């Protein structure tokens, strides 16, 4: 068993709650945009981004797949939009594209391609101090956030709000009043989760301190958070080898070897929860070093009980981001350090 955590992590960002409040305050703009587009015959929605922006699309896509008979929805990396011909990319499409800087080259190229095809583009990007960005200038509508630090949450919230707005406008959203009440509670709920995940942070910080590889399992809307944790927070920001495994594929090969390294299972309260629980039951029986990030451990104040499944993927993603801080502290790694990103041509 790993020894207890000995190094205190950086505290949660001071601007967390105000940034989340700024983000959810734009729900009305999302609903207005969706209503106009549905009235004009919206047929297809594309959720697009690179890296963390792409991983933030998973909860929104899950909502559309579960509730919408039309418009159809797809998620993809910006590179895939650029290099593949898309039959639905025309004047009846909405492209929701996210880039923190508003200047990611692939995302901008995808946006310009979409606009050339006649699609409406909703951009998601940081906007602060009166500064604009290429994405803000290209987009037909901008959904923004002011923080340079609180980034994971506003992207996922904006994607989710736009998905909810489209579903509502199309008459496909169950209990719209309850859904929007839950969204309004997100700032307080996610702020609480960020603090409530601390005991798990201490546990995985100790487990990952000397690890050579970490596996992260997730399913459905939480698989985006699993990928973000593995690719962005561990590989990119901690220089720790990591791999995300879909809990639905876990028993079709990976479980033979995964347990030789620390394993973290991300569990929400959505319809795919049973997939994560099955992986946890296996880990309890056969693995030595494993943990669970479970949204049921979070109070999510203000979120109606019937809507916890809607909000839990956002809480899981936010809490998973917090684990980065514990890992970096224990490993003595500066998460802002890069070998290649922003430093060389690629």
TrEMBL record:
<feature type="domain" description="SIS">
    <location>
        <begin position="34"/>
        <end position="177"/>
    </location>
</feature>
<dbReference type="InterPro" id="IPR046348">
    <property type="entry name" value="SIS_dom_sf"/>
</dbReference>
<dbReference type="GO" id="GO:0006002">
    <property type="term" value="P:fructose 6-phosphate metabolic process"/>
</dbReference>
<dbReference type="GO" id="GO:0097367">
    <property type="term" value="F:carbohydrate derivative binding"/>
</dbReference>
<protein>
    <submittedName>
        <fullName>Fructosamine deglycase FrlB</fullName>
    </submittedName>
</protein>
<dbReference type="GO" id="GO:0006047">
    <property type="term" value="P:UDP-N-acetylglucosamine metabolic process"/>
</dbReference>
<dbReference type="InterPro" id="IPR001347">
    <property type="entry name" value="SIS_dom"/>
</dbReference>
<dbReference type="GO" id="GO:0004360">
    <property type="term" value="F:glutamine-fructose-6-phosphate transaminase (isomerizing) activity"/>
</dbReference>
<dbReference type="GO" id="GO:0006487">
    <property type="term" value="P:protein N-linked glycosylation"/>
</dbReference>
<dbReference type="Pfam" id="PF01380">
    <property type="entry name" value="SIS"/>
</dbReference>
């Amino acid at each position: 068993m790993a020894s207890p955590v000995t190094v205190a992590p950086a505290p949660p960002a001071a601007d967390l709650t105000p940034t989340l409040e700024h983000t959810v305050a734009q729900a009305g703009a999302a609903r207005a945009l969706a209503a106009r587009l549905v009235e004009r015959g919206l047929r297809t929605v594309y959720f697009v981004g690179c890296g963390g922006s792409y991983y933030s699309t998973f909860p929104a896509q899950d909502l559309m797949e579960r509730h919408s008979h039309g418009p159809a929805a797809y998620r993809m990396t910006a590179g895939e939009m650029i290099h593949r011909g898309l039959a639905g990319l025309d004047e009846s499409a909405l492209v929701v594209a996210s880039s923190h800087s508003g200047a990611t080259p692939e995302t901008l190229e995808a946006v310009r391609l979409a606009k050339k095809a006649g699609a409406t583009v909703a951009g998601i990007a940081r906007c602060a101090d009166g500064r604009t960005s290429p994405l803000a200038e290209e987009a037909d509508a901008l959904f923004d956030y002011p923080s340079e630090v609180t980034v994971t949450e506003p992207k996922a919230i904006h994607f989710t709000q736009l998905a909810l707005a489209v579903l509502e406008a199309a008459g496909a959203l169950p209990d719209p009043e309850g859904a929007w009440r839950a969204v309004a509670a997100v700032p307080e709920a996610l702020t609480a989760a960020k603090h409530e995940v601390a005991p798990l942070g201490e546990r995985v910080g100790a487990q990952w301190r000397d690890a050579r590889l970490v596996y992260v399992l997730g399913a459905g809307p939480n698989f985006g958070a699993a990928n973000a944790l593995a690719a962005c927070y561990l590989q990119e920001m901690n220089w720790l080898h990591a791999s995300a495994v879909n809990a639905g594929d876990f028993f079709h090969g990976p479980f033979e070897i995964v347990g030789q390294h620390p394993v973290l299972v991300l569990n929400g309260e959505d319809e795919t929860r049973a997939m994560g629980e099955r992986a946890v039951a296996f880990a309890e029986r056969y693995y030595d070093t494993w943990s669970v990030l479970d949204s049921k451990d979070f109070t999510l104040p203000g979120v109606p009980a019937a809507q916890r499944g809607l909000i839990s993927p956002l809480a899981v993603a936010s809490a998973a981001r917090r684990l980065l801080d514990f890992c970096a502290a224990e490993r003595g790694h500066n998460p802002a350090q890069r070998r290649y990103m922003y430093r060389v041509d690629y």
